[in-house]
Each structure stands twice: as C-alpha cells, then as structure tokens.
Amino acid sequence: MRGGAEKVLRVLAEMFPDAPIYTLLYDEAKLGTWFPKERVRTSDIQHHYPLSIIHHPFFFNHHFYLRRFPAAVEAWDFSEFDLVISSSSAFAHGIITNGKPKHLCYVHSPARYLWDRSMDVLSRAGRGPLGPLKKCYLSRTFHKLREWDAEVSDRPDYLLAASKTVQRRIELYWRRESAVVPPPIDDFWLQDKSILSSSVLRPTSYFFIASTLVPYKRIDLAIEASNRAKLPLLIAGEGRDRRRLESLAGPTVAFLGYKDETALRELYAGATATIFPGDEDFGLVPLESLACGTPVIAYQSGGSIETLTEGVTASFFDEPTAASLQNALEHFERKNFSPDDCRTAAKRHARTDFEEAIRREVEALRKV
Fold first, then answer.
1. Of the candidates 232, 234, 237, which has an alpha carbon nearest to the alpha carbon of residue 217?
2. CB 62 within 8 A of CB 45
3. DSSP state of 98
4. pTM attached to this predicted model
C-alpha cells in the first residue's frame, strides 16, 4: 500500500504539474504511474546504491544509511525556482534555500524514530545476535540526527502541520508555530456508493485492516485480540513485518497481500468495522473506511481523535493493549452506526478543501 505521505505528494504534484519532484530514493516500478520518471530528480544516494541493493533486506536497511540523508537533501540546488514546497516526515524540511526561493514545508511529523518513538526503535534493533551492535550504532546516529533535525527546523519559511497532533510535536521538538492543513481523502473514495457491487452493501461478519505491515502500526494488537475472541480478521497490505505477524495469527486471521483501491473499497464496504490500532499522525485509512459507509474501531490517540466521533463514526479503545481492543471488538454493534453519517464525515476531508488551503498558503508566502 502507498502511505499518506505519498498520497499527499501526488496531490501536490498534480496541483503543480510543471514542477520537478526531488526525492532521496525513487522506484519507478512502484511509483512510476504516480510520479513519472521525467519529473523526478533523485539524490546521490540513488546513484551510489542501485535499487537491486536498496530492496535487498540483507544488504540494505535504510537506518544504516540515515547519516547520509542530511547531506543528500542539502546538496540540492533550488536557485532556479521562486518557491519550493516540501513534504517532510524526516529530512525534506532540511533543504537549503536561504530565503530564495521561499520554502513552504508540509510536515507529516517530525521524524518519530528520532523523537517520541526512538526508544521503541532502539529496543527492536537490540534484538538478535548483532542486536547490541546495531543498537549502539543507531543510538549514536539518532543523537546526531536529532541535533541536525532541531537545528534545521528553522529553514522553512512557513510550516503546515498534517494535524493538531503534529502541530503539538512541531511546537515541542522544533519550537515553531504552524498551521494545520489536514491531508485530503482521494476523490476515488467519495464517488457515488452505487458503484459498489450489491453484494458488499450489506456488512458481513469480518473485521478489516488496511495497512503497511510495519511494527508501529500495532497490527499485532488486532491479531491477538482476534485470536482471543475468535473473530474473523482480514488484513490487506504488505510490509517487512508480515512474516512476524503471520506467525502470531490464529485460524480466524487471513492476510490478503496488496490490494488496489477498487478491491479495498469493496473490502471496506463489506466489513463489520475497520480496525485502526496504531497511534498515528493523522490517518487516511479511517476516512477511506467512512467513505465506504463503514465505521472504525480505533485507538483513542493521535489523529484518530481529530477525525472520528465516538458513537457516530467510531468506537474507541483507550489502552494500547490487545485486551482493550478485544473488549471493543466483542461489544461492537454495527447496527448502531449509520453509513450515511460515516460518508458525511469523510466528505469533510475532500481534496478541493486541501487544494484551496495549499494555494492560499502559497499566495500568502509569495507576498511576504
């Protein structure tokens, strides 16, 4: 699955179709239909490490190349432009423009593995025979990168935060103000519900997850809760954590792999509820689910509490534990939620509103 950052970048790229796209790494096979090769300018890291190495788990783990990323983004020359819009979840905010061109930065979050999730990442890295060495290396690397991250946070002329949750992190870690502009749901999800096949308009007896399979998404909580309650759970998505998650799954849990948007729409629409167990910056998956008329069971933290309403579009569980989620699953009543209420909530995050906000901020910055 493509994540929220890629989806936001696609909207920005379509808003400014003549602008080149700078990125640290680029995989044409996966993203070429969204970001054509002729628009993409990659960093020196791409040239030094071919994709055959970058995608090989034995040879490449991006954590071990993190020290190269700051210099890579600082090497880009933007002197030919009058405005740069960066989309940053780690390094892009650190580009150098020196006030010309102007720099508007859309922040998905200050890098969470450097700040609030640092200890979790180090704990996982410390496992296994080489764990202590990896943990020591990453601890030193994270320390250096935190210093760089805080130092360069004043380079953008203005910051946009993906949510109030992210806005608070920007203030805490970077000591800067920002304006909140939530990511948009794609127009695809807001199409007339009549395009759904009649077989999925009536919810069936499974819970659903759509996610990249990585540890911080906390899909393990949903698997354990489903195992305990013996409830059917379907999981769509791929990621490096799939093997571990499959080892945890009981007979009521099924992994579907990658699904395109058309297949996802029917899976959302046919589910009793979509489970969103992680502590996320914002979360587009819940909005996609609501657009299909399906409520969400979510951890009561982060972006979820900004877009979901208890008893109207969602049921929250308040502790990041399998037991808390299990309780929410076992007491969930689909009949208490209106598909129309769900779809109405999703429409509040239409792409047109996002585009208007971005254009307004661009014009304001150009006048400064």
1. 237
2. no
3. T
4. 0.88
Closest alpha carbon to 269 in 195, 187, 344: 195
Residue keyed to tokens 């807001």: 190
- Bridging pattern class, strands 296-299 and 273-276: parallel
Residue 196: which of 336, 308, 291 has the closest Cα? Answer: 291
- What is the CATH topology of the domain spanning 4-184+351-367? Rossmann fold (3.40.50)
Q: In what order do the strands lie in the sheet with 158-161?
A: 83-88, 102-107, 158-161, 179-180
User: In Å, how far from its chain's centre is CA 254?
Assistant: 23
Beta bridge mates, 103: 84
Q: Can you tell me the distance from the alpha carbon of 3 to that of 90, in angstroms, rounded to the nearest whole number?
A: 14
DSSP state of 170: I
Residue pLDDT, tens place only, 257-305: 999 999 999 999 999 999 999 999 999 999 999 999 999 999 999 999 9
Cβ(346)–Cβ(190) below 8 Å: yes
Whether the CB-CB separation of 73 and 61 falls below 8 Å is answered with no
Question: Residue 124 is encoded by which pair of tokens?
Answer: 């996982």
Contact by Cβ (8 Å): 104, 86: yes
The whole-angstrom separation of Cα 49 and Cα 35 is: 20
Write out the two tokens for 236.
């769509």
For 318-357, the pLDDT digits (tens) are: 999 999 999 999 999 999 999 999 999 999 999 999 999 9
CA 303 to CA 182: how far, in whole Å?
A: 10
Q: CA 182 to CA 160: how far, in whole Å?
A: 9
**Residue ranges matching CATH 3.40.50.2000 in the chain:** 187-347
Residue 78 CB neighbour total at 10 angstroms: 18
Task: Select 187-347's CATH number: 3.40.50.2000, 3.60.40.10, 3.90.1720.10, 3.40.309.10.
Answer: 3.40.50.2000
Contact 365, 158 (CB under 8 A): yes
How many C-beta atoms surround the C-beta of residue 310 within 10 A? 11
Half-sphere exposure of 106 (CA within 13 A, CB side): 24
- Report the 10 Å Cβ neighbour count for 102: 19
